[in-house]
Write the structure tokens for this entry.
Amino acid sequence: MFAVHLLAFYFTKLKEDQIKKVDRFLYHMRLSDETLLDIMARFQAEMQKGLGKDTNPTASVKMLPTFVRAIPDGSENGEFLSLDLGGSKFRVLKVQVSEEGKRNVQMESQFYPTPNEIIRGNGTELFEYVADCLADFMKTKELTQKKLPLGLTFSFPCKQTKLEEGILLSWTKKFKARGVLGTDVVSSLTNAMKRHQQDLDVDILALVNDTVGTMMTCAYDDPYCEVGVIIGTGTNACYMEDMSNIDLVEGDEGRMCINTEWGAFGDDGALEDIRTEFDRELDLGSLNPGKQLFEKMISGLYLGELVRLILLKMAKAGLLFGGEKSSALHIKGKIETRHVAAMERYKEGLANTREILTDLGLEPSDADCIAVQHVCTIVSFRSANLCAAALAAILTRLRENKKLVRLRTTVGMDGTLYKIHPQYPKRLHKVVRKLVPNCDVRFLLSESGSTKGAAMVTAVASRVQAQRKQIDKVLALFRLTQEQLVGVRNKMRVEFEYGLKKDTHPRATVKMLPTYVCGMPDGTEKGKFLALDLGGTNFRVLLVKIRSGRRSVRMYNKIFAIPLEIMQGTGEELFDHIVQCIADFLDYMGLKGAQLPLGFTFSFPCRQASIDKEFDLDIVAVVNDTVGTMMTCGYEDSNCEVGLIAEGAQDGEELERNLGEEQGVAQGTGSNMCYMEEMRNIELVEGDEGKMCINTEWGGFGDNGCLDDIQTQYDKEVDEGSLNPGKQRYEKMTSGMYLGEIVRQILIDLTKQGLLFRGHISERLQTRGIFETKFLSQIESDRLALLQVRRILQQLGLDSTCEDSIVVKEVCGAVSRRAAQLYGAGLAAIVEKRREDQGLEHVRITVGVDGTLYKLHPHFSRILRETVKELAPQCDVMFMLSEDGSGKGAALITAVAKRLQQAQREH
Ligand code: BG6
Ligand code: BG6
Ligand code: GLC
């Protein structure tokens, strides 16, 4: 009995001594709680640095956006292929994710070796090898006939701008293949697969880091999971970050998974105070010296080696093995993590230690075994401590992002060190809980690796891809080829000729109305004039004072509202109201009762017998707004001989209807053009001398069916729902009010197809006219962040997600782009005609432009100009914005008419 006690005492004493000895020797590796809290704070700062746009380039912890935005919701389904490359084992898998939300996943897999010649050889060969393995897998599993989407788990730091791309930033761990750095891994693999065209038909839809795969795998079973940690060959973590904190990705909505790449923590020197001589020595002998310094203190690839370096040093110092060293102990990599794990086993630990040391050619005493075991403990404990500190930083960040006092969360775990080491998980959990006492953390081991999660990401990607294809199909309808645009230009040209010729005019769709405006201002005009501007977005009354010789004009104007009951009343009531407004205005200007010549901009097509016949005597000129615009610009630039209106959405839809019915004129023009034509070409008017302005009324272009080939179903719907079906086809493809309606029709269709607004067609979306030009312009503005677009849509009553907003923006873009191009084709037709009529090789023409679409839309004017340039290369077209609206032009026309009248009387 005594002997037993004595032995126990002896052993305890021996153990204590050995432990004290090792503790003393490895003093620097034992991190106090204080140090851990300090490291935790440092890592918090690193994360912030990596997330910031300006600080990211120099940050060592890269905080890479992964483009994985949501954890699985159970609706994922389908059959997928998966590759898992970069951990200790390379696997190819087929994953079947069940349908009907049953949360059931079936996997078949096959391991393939990764020999050093392959993973440290030539990059092309590495990818060819991976493709070969995949092809082999397809053959053995009899999958060659299937087209399957593939998700690639690739456990290295990759920069992503989308899910299906990954630019390799650096090789880590055991890999170092040439020619891959800085290139896209997905396209390299896609290229390599081309050699197997016969039996490989796969589409790589997603690239995910193993941490992301792990998090997603665990999240499939536990929706609280929002962190993924790997402690295996390498170490790393990912977590769900608020989009508003991710500077590198546009959008503020929701969250995105960030791959921290924490293995590189310390690469900028941030951990020098805790690194030991062993860490430095290990680093020097590694494949990537100076890199992944945090990882080298933690992960499986390095732990055994750290232990070996320590044992060697202790032996040299005579602290172990009686100062003897074996040759095996000198060989790099001789002690592996699995050895460390075995030596730390509870019961068999010491026996294992003896066996392992003996295998290394050493002759360990009991004391040696105890000491070596303790070395292992210190090294692996430090690893767990460091991981815990970084993980605690992430958890704190999550808690703060959510503004919670207590956070309840789950961390998905994987990696061989974590899985096979007997004490590791317990120690890690304990330290994390100590460092963040205000977090209730559940650690969930991913039993099935990262593949299940990668398949979830692929499933979502494949759904998005299918939807994308449907959306692209719709948008493609609005993309006009150069050939089609040339066709439009040529057809427009034909219509011009039809409208001008006496015998074809009655049937012409582009009416080419003579305006009796024959002269441009010459600067000698003078006097006071009244002008009315009716038909645009506003109704304005103006007093225009023209001073001769100085080309200077002073204007006073007042905007009047036209009350709804008057807009919807008779034409007579409308004109009574207008007369009242004029009287008010004169009163307001102190000119009560004055008889002033009046010019009237009336933006609806009317056939004029002569310029002043339609109204009472004091109305000298009724002009179309295009003519007013041309005149306004012509006063400044004598080259101006075209007037263009690209109007916005009108509030006065009802106004139009009334005017249309009562006054016997066609519908209001949103899109129109006028120009100066040679009198000899105008068959409807006597005389061959000089020029006259023609109001083309080109909005009616296409009414004979000549644009049917480019009309979409949406154009047809808009036309059918309009007040004048079958009429003004060109205008309905180009002017603001209709553009909004086309957009609305497309959105309704996409929603019906389940591609937008969660498939829900809201009442708002069914409301005509919600997309006014100003909204289109705002939505398409490049300066707006996605979130702002979303806000505009919400203001419009459309409850949209971020993805919805992107699609809506694209739809608006496609529709307005086509409009600008069609405008350009029409304009090209007129400038070409002018060039040919004058028999010139080259011509310079100024186009006076007005209208909110042209003025406000962020891209319209640019695309219009580009199209004209392409379709009329021999014409040098200048665009001049009419700053003063067409009221000034109306006054000028009146002045010119007065001048010409006077001249006639004097003769
Ligand atoms: C596996 C995952 O379970 O763990 C891999 O499927 C991951 O994606 C690996 O890379 C990490 O651990 P180790 O120890 O194999 O590097
Ligand atoms: C104004 C002109 O500037 O533009 C009006 O004065 C014209 O005559 C109008 O009708 C067209 O643009 P919108 O987009 O305001 O209707
Ligand atoms: C390395 C890689 C990282 C990976 C980790 C775990 O740190 O750089 O991408 O997640 O190992 O495998």
